[in-house]
Recover the amino acids of this structure.
């Protein structure tokens, strides 16, 4: 018994460390990029690829990574992902040209696409008892939510005192420590039904996700009306539509549609995707507003976000973790969305003349959004991988991570564009206004949209997860151990009986 408890602890530590690596790497390089640009003599037009290469590879290959994880075994894929991520990070840190750095960043994204779903799958099959499962997913969610803030702080400190290359080198010891922890994780058997890779589905999903994520990234620079952006969005939508059509017909789909069509699981995907759209708009506001309007340094701006990270940590572990299995996920997810909406809405009241900004506005907004994120992430992560066949766990984990990636990319691009457009319109209508007044107007306009998105997420998610059947069966679902037989965690018995006949 003690041995099993130790294995579970090591699994949680290793998976949390890997989650920190994946999320942290999405922001830490942002801070180091100006220094890297000077050192490697990058052009202004090409520097974005240090960010975009990672995002495209990570988001585009997640579904393939999830299926590979099920085929090879989640533990084996997890270790391969960690070692590959460490090697790619070392390569990027040693880059002597922009092309070498861009290639290393893309390689990081490739291994992150295998690492992220494998880690979430390991948590799912390791923690099956309700209370332990709640605590585990609470810690996992807190680490993920804190990763962005930690990345901003670490990036600022490392770039200022050690050098930009250490923003990549730092991943190597962290990844190797996680590998040591993963060596103590219990072995899992590869899925018998996942030996054959759906090659057409892999190509279509990768091309579709890459087109959509790239369009989101380009929209931040060229605007949503750009012909390039519209063409990429149309191509991505078409490729993904063909992908879905093919997945419904192939006997060995890359992403079985039953994963997305399950009512409660669909609600979890929808909630986390829209939550990330709004929250990354919020993080963008915090970065720009604190530095350009309040005059904070990058390190001070990052430290401010620690309040949000701590609130997320407390909410995910002390509230969501403890209530897991005792209360319906809707009891956590819906108030979490509303709390985040309230926090963001508070910031829409800011004006250029506002005083006591930190105490009256930023602090409560950081606490409320952190509370909301901490309440939403653990139950959605659990719902995304509950009530599912063992061979589909990797695909479900990948779909959950893909929702986060798409939400983050869309939120960053959407709110950057909204803020810039609203600011320009305001200054045109008020030619004598200060530039800071236009900027604040742009930020509050974008945040109003973020508030509306979270309110819409609440209304759309509620009917999917707030059902009598879900509440009646939830406690029984979580108490059943995960086995290799279909539908062992059955949130919707009649649906799952149909599901097994679907393949």
């Amino acid at each position: 018994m003690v041995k099993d408890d130790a294995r579970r602890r090591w699994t949680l530590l290793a998976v949390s460390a890997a989650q920190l690596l994946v999320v942290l790497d999405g922001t830490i390089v942002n801070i180091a990029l100006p220094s890297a640009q000077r050192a490697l003599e990058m052009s202004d037009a090409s520097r974005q690829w240090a960010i975009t290469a990672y995002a495209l590879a990570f988001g585009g290959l997640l579904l393939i990574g999830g299926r590979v994880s099920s085929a090879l075994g989640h533990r084996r894929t997890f270790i391969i992902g960690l070692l590959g991520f460490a090697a790619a990070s070392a390569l990027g840190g040693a880059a002597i040209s922009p092309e070498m750095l861009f290639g290393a960043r893309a390689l990081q994204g490739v291994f992150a696409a295998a690492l992220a779903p494998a880690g979430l799958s390991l948590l799912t099959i390791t923690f099956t008892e309700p209370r332990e499962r709640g605590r585990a997913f609470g810690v996992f969610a807190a680490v993920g939510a804190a990763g962005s803030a930690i990345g901003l702080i670490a990036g600022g400190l490392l770039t200022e005192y050690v050098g930009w290359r250490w923003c990549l080198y730092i991943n190597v010891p962290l990844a190797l420590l996680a590998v040591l922890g993963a060596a103590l994780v219990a072995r899992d058997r590869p899925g018998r039904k996942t030996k054959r890779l759906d090659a057409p589905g892999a190509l279509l999903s990768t091309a579709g996700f890459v087109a959509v994520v790239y369009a989101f990234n380009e929209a931040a620079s060229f605007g949503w009306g750009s012909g390039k952006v519209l063409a990429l969005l149309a191509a991505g939508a078409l490729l993904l539509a063909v992908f879905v059509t093919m997945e419904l017909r192939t006997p060995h789909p890359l992403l079985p549609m039953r994963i997305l069509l399950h009512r409660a699981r669909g609600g979890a995907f929808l909630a986390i995707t829209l939550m990330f759209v709004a929250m990354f708009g919020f993080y963008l506001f915090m970065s720009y507003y604190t530095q350009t309007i309040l005059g904070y340094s990058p390190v001070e701006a990052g430290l401010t976000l620690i309040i949000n990270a701590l609130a997320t940590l407390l909410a995910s572990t002390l509230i969501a973790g403890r209530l897991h299995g005792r209360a319906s996920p809707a009891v956590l997810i819906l108030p979490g969305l509303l709390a985040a909406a309230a926090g963001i809405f508070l910031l829409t009241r800011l004006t250029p003349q506002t005083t006591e900004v930190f105490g009256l506005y930023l602090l409560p907004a950081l606490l409320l959004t952190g509370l909301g994120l901490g309440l939403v992430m653990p139950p959605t992560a659990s719902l995304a991988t509950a009530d599912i066949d063992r061979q589909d766990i990797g695909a479900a984990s990948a779909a959950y991570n893909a929702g986060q990636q798409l939400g983050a990319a869309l939120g960053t691009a959407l709110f950057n564009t909204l803020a810039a457009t609203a600011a320009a319109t305001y200054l045109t209508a008020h030619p004598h206004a200060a530039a800071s007044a236009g900027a604040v107007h742009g930020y509050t306009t974008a945040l109003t949209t973020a508030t509306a998105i979270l309110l819409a997420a609440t209304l759309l998610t509620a009917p999917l997860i707030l059902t009598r059947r879900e509440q009646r069966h939830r406690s029984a679902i979580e108490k059943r151990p995960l086995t290799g037989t279909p539908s062992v965690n059955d949130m919707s018995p009649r649906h799952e009986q149909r599901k097994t006949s679907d393949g």
In short: The first helix runs from residue 2 to 40. Confidence is low (pLDDT under 50) at residues 473-503. The CA atoms of residues 24 and 148 lie 5 Å apart. The radius of gyration is 22 Å.
